[in-house]
Design a protein that fits this description.
It comes from Natrinema soli. The chain is α+β, with helices and mostly antiparallel strands. It has one domain. The chain contains two helices and six strands. The longest helix has 6 residues. The N and C termini lie far apart (34 Å).
């Protein structure tokens, strides 16, 4: 698994798949990770941790992603402008 940062809050995010899972032979089927790439209707994509995914509205915009803040290790929120 590779590690990178959440586009919303900056947490370290592990991404499943790639060369690190080459020899797992489907035991986790690429499902182990702490974030997911979200593609928005405007065509942009953002790698977000699960707490940020829970904090954004159902039809998020790029502005919603830019306003995400880390509260603690388990929660995020949309900050004010």
């Amino acid at each position: 698994m590779s590690k990178t940062s959440c586009d919303g809050c900056g947490r370290t995010v592990t991404v499943s798949g790639g060369i690190a899972n080459l020899w797992s032979f489907g035991t986790d089927a690429g499902t182990v990770g702490t974030g997911i790439t979200l593609e928005l209707e405007d065509g942009s994509s953002h790698l977000l941790c699960y707490p940020c995914l829970e904090a954004i509205p159902d039809y998020p915009t790029t502005e919603d992603v830019e306003r995400l803040e880390r509260v603690d290790d388990e929660t995020s929120r949309i900050g004010t402008l």
